[in-house]
Design goal:
It is globular and about 50 Å long. About 40% of the residues are buried. The strands form two sheets. A six-stranded mixed β-sheet has the order 6-7-8-3-9-10, sandwiched between helices. It has a four-stranded antiparallel β-sheet with strand order 2-1-4-5, covered by helices on one side. Helix 4 packs across helix 5 and helix 5 packs parallel to helix 6. About 35% of the residues lie in helices and about 25% in strands. It is α/β, with parallel strands linked by helices and about 230 residues long. Bound molecules: adenosine-5'-diphosphate (2 copies). GO terms for molecular function: ATP binding; ATP hydrolysis activity. It comes from Desertihabitans brevis. This is ABC transporter ATP-binding protein. Keywords: ATP-binding, Nucleotide-binding, Transport.
Length: about 230
């Protein structure tokens, strides 16, 4: 379980700085798809950066299975909106997906197997040897997803990952994400400003207010997912 307790983030500045997130608490169960929806500037990215260990909270704690996090945990993966800049352009798709596995010290055989499986899961088995720029935006974001899931993270953190693709690609990627989640059982924390998207993807939706951002309420989505 991912547990966020009384999280606060204040950016330094005049007059005591700017508090982007305040008093934020929630728990995400293992295997859950939890989305956070709120207007632009609400502090969603700030929240996710803290949860991912990329930014130190001013107050509060984040823990995974009872262990407080302190820096980016190995078992977390993050996918940002900006897929094009997150992929290494000079590396093949397979090499990009393999990168975190190399960092985690997996051996060559298991890396190969994991890359193959992740690419198959996102429907890109045939693109392994292409370069990212040879692919469409939607396909590049699939590569980013494959890279994130290849080492089987405990928690997949996604910040508006489909915000910069066209509507059809976005719908395809949403369905792909639901399928990946079904197949891998990964816990997903997903931030978006799009209410429709959050309802479509979620088990539960947390609605956040404008900065200082706090959770207004959490809604369970009763509809079965496709
Ligand atoms: P969202 O992702 O919901 O659009 P952000 O977390 O990006 O919101 O931003 C929330 C607020 O925090 C915004 O008003 C933004 O200007 C401010 N903010 C974000 N990053 C910083 C920073 N590094 N320094 C100061 N203020 C920041
Ligand atoms: P190189 O041939 O220089 O190793 P590749 O782009 O062919 O670079 O592969 C990078 C890594 O990704 C390989 O080391 C292997 O583990 C994995 N890999 C390569 N080709 C495939 C493929 N078709 N399907 C799945 N994984 C692959």
């Amino acid at each position: 379980m991912l547990l966020i307790t009384d999280l606060e983030k204040t950016y330094p500045g005049p007059n005591g700085g700017f508090t982007a997130v305040r008093g934020m608490s929630f728990a995400v169960q293992d295997g859950e798809m939890f989305t956070i929806v709120g207007p632009s500037g609400a502090g969603k990215t700030t929240l996710l950066r803290c949860v991912a260990g990329l930014s130190a909270p001013t107050a509060g704690t984040i823990s995974i299975d009872g262990v407080p996090i302190d820096g980016p945990p190995r078992e977390f993966a993050v996918v940002f909106q900006d897929y094009a800049r997150s992929l290494m352009p000079w590396m093949s798709v397979a090499k990009n997906v393999e990168l975190p596995l190399v960092k985690h010290g997996s051996d060559a055989r298991s890396r190969r197997r994991a890359v193959e499986q992740a690419l198959a899961e996102v429907g890109l088995a045939d693109a392994a040897h292409k370069k990212p720029f040879q692919l469409s935006g939607g396909m590049q974001q699939r590569v980013a997803i494959a890279r994130a899931i290849a080492y089987r993270p405990k928690v997949l953190i996604m910040d508006e990952p489909f915000a910069s693709v066209d509507a059809q690609t976005r719908a395809d990627l949403e369905d792909l994400l639901l399928k990946v989640r079904e197949e891998t059982g990964t816990t997903i924390v997903f931030v978006t400003h799009d209410v429709d998207e959050s309802v479509y993807l979620s088990d539960r939706v947390a609605i956040v207010t404008r900065s200082p951002s706090r959770i207004d309420r959490i809604v369970s989505i009763p509809l079965p997912h496709p």
